[in-house]
Write a structure and sequence with these properties.
Blueprint lengths: L1 H23 L1 E7 L23 E9 L5 E2 L3 H6 L2 H6 L1 H4 L4 E7 L6 H7 L2 H17 L4 E5 L12 H19 L2 E7 L2 H7 L2 H7 L2 E5 L27 H10 L7 E6 L1 E7 L11 E4 L11 E3 H7 L4 E5 L4 E6 L2 E4 L3 H13 L4 E5 L16 H10 L75 H4 L4 E4 L6 E8 L2 E8 L4 E4 L4 E4 L6
Parallel strand pairs: 1-2, 1-15, 2-4, 4-5, 5-6, 6-7, 7-8, 8-15
Antiparallel strand pairs: 2-3, 9-10, 9-11, 9-14, 12-13, 13-14, 16-17, 17-18, 19-20
Length: 513
């Protein structure tokens, strides 16, 4: 009898040790709310989200006011159409699901964040307003997406002030049982400027590391947005970023590895050079749904890639494809599986996707909806070899279809940030510099374009960003469709003007022109 009790006790102990490891893994799904404005099969409603494929879902974005207030960016979508309510109603379909709302993003920039967080009084007001907002709209948590402290118009003191913000939020969130997370820069070149990582790890429930946008059309040669591994001198890889966060003190169980459900595209200098490291002349052509030059959603890629020249880089563990002078590097089911396996092998807290609406949510390509998200689930909640608790970069096969070329130069192409929107207008963003990361939304092309001060289309002579000549708070994003330019209007918050030297909204006193 005692023997059976010992066996039973051992079995229970093993069960209790094994189950929580899997149960604690997270699948964090960001949702870009502006995707409801996309045309055709790109249009995405909140109800399309499968709440059983995510443990946590995050609604993006709300904005930050100079006084520490929370700004709703699209009241028509969030309030009139019930976006916040419908998002939280996903919990009716999966009671275990946790919902959060994210503030900031690439468009918000750093100036307002910096001014609020470095002032003790406004920081306290910001903390209170966050708690009140989360409770009012019945979210389970809040996600800080400050891109990035001490960068892009921020101050050198941001690094310390960000920790003070997290510490004060932690106290209040614990009182109300709320979740606190953040989306953070991945590469050492950016993360080292913005974060005291050891302290960040103390206060956040989980850390969404944006391990993508490591290369893009801001580089002079083709490069994959998110290579899992690289050569011995390539620091812009998913592995290098994750290992940096670990060595700097971030708890493994809090690290959530980011996976992009999109690719970064280029226009090749020569259509004959289909390789990583090939010379380029700029961003790739925009897709029919996201309509952003230099980026394609996986749903756009998988619909066309069957006729493209598809290659697999076995060193970087990622695919890329070419068609004429168009080149795109992206994550598919195979590379996503490798990254999910990396999560398990290195005892990380889980995986995150940016973003749910650019996976193949209609199931047009593989006969199954959300193939990338399902690949993550299959690994994280299945069997994967145990962790070695070390970087495996040097042990990866050296046989590769093309030699990768690394660049850490900053972008010379346009970047943008926006602050306020009304009615059915959402925000937009261009690509971040090399070595940085972005949760970058796309402006709906059917948004209003008249500025009231000039004829916007006449301002556009090339794709990119241009400031209104009569009002420095107003700027436009120029896109070329079927040979004609279309301009989308944006407006900086009060006290800010559009800084054409860095293509962000900045304090007027800091803008030299």
């Amino acid at each position: 009898m005692k023997t059976w009790l010992l066996i039973l006790g051992a079995a229970i102990t093993l069960f209790n040790l094994a189950v929580p490891i899997t149960a604690k893994r997270k699948v964090v799904c960001y949702h870009g709310s502006w995707s409801v404005y996309r045309p055709g099969d790109g249009k995405f409603e909140i109800e399309y989200i499968d709440p059983n494929l995510c443990t946590h879902v995050i609604y993006t974005f709300v904005g930050i006011e100079y006084n520490g207030g929370i700004r709703i960016l699209d009241s028509w979508n969030e309030i009139d159409k019930g976006g916040f309510r419908r998002f939280n109603d996903l919990k009716k379909r999966n009671p275990s699901l946790k919902t959060s709302v994210a503030i900031g993003g690439w468009n918000e920039g750093s100036s307002t964040y910096s001014s609020v967080v470095n002032d003790a009084t406004r920081r306290a007001a910001f903390v209170k307003n966050i708690v009140d907002f989360v409770k009012q709209y019945e979210f389970d948590g809040f996600d800080l997406d400050w891109e990035y402290p001490a960068q892009r118009g921020g101050a050198a003191t941001d690094k310390a002030a960000f920790i003070l913000l997290l510490k004060e939020l932690r106290v209040k969130f614990d009182e109300h049982g709320l979740l606190l997370s953040a989306a953070v820069a991945s590469a050492e070149s950016s993360a080292s400027l913005s974060y005291n990582i050891l302290e960040v790890g103390k206060y956040l429930d989980f850390i969404n590391v944006m391990t993508y946008d490591l290369h893009g059309s801001w580089d002079p040669v083709t490069g994959h947005s998110a290579p899992l591994y690289g050569g011995p001198n390539d620091g812009l890889t998913v592995d290098a970023a994750i290992q940096y966060w670990i060595t700097q003190g971030a708890p493994r169980e809090k690290i959530i590895l980011g996976i992009g459900t999109y690719g970064r595209s280029f226009t090749l200098s020569s259509a004959s050079q289909c390789s990583i490291g090939a010379p380029t002349i700029g961003a790739g052509s925009a897709g029919p749904y996201t309509r952003e030059a230099g980026a394609l959603g996986y749903n756009e890629i998988c619909e066309r890639v069957s006729t493209w020249n598809v290659k697999w880089d076995d060193q970087q563990k990622v695919p890329y494809a070419c068609n004429g002078n168009q080149w795109v590097g992206y994550d598919d089911i195979r590379s996503t599986t490798h990254k999910a396996e990396y999560v398990v092998q290195h005892d990380l807290g889980g995986a995150m996707i940016w973003s749910v609406e650019t996976d193949d949510f209609l199931g047009k390509c593989h006969g199954v909806k959300y193939p990338l998200l399902k690949a993550i689930n299959d690994v994280l909640f299945g069997d994967v070899p145990p962790s070695k608790n070390q970087s495996t970069s040097e042990s990866q096969p050296a046989t590769t279809t093309a030699k990768a070329t690394t660049t850490t130069s900053k972008a010379t192409t346009s970047k943008s940030t926006t602050t306020t929107t009304t009615a059915a207008i959402t925000t937009t963003a261009a690509a971040p510099p090399a070595g940085q990361d972005s949760t970058s939304p796309t402006q709906p092309p059917d948004a209003p374009t008249d500025s009231g001060s000039s004829d916007p289309p006449k301002l556009c002579t090339e794709e990119g960003y241009v400031r209104d000549p009569n009002d420095k708070r107003i700027f436009y994003q120029c896109h070329k469709f079927s040979g004609d330019f279309t301009a989308f209007r944006f407006e900086c918050a009060l006290g800010l003007v559009f800084d054409i030297s860095i293509n962000v909204c900045n304090w007027a006193s800091a803008v030299k022109d």
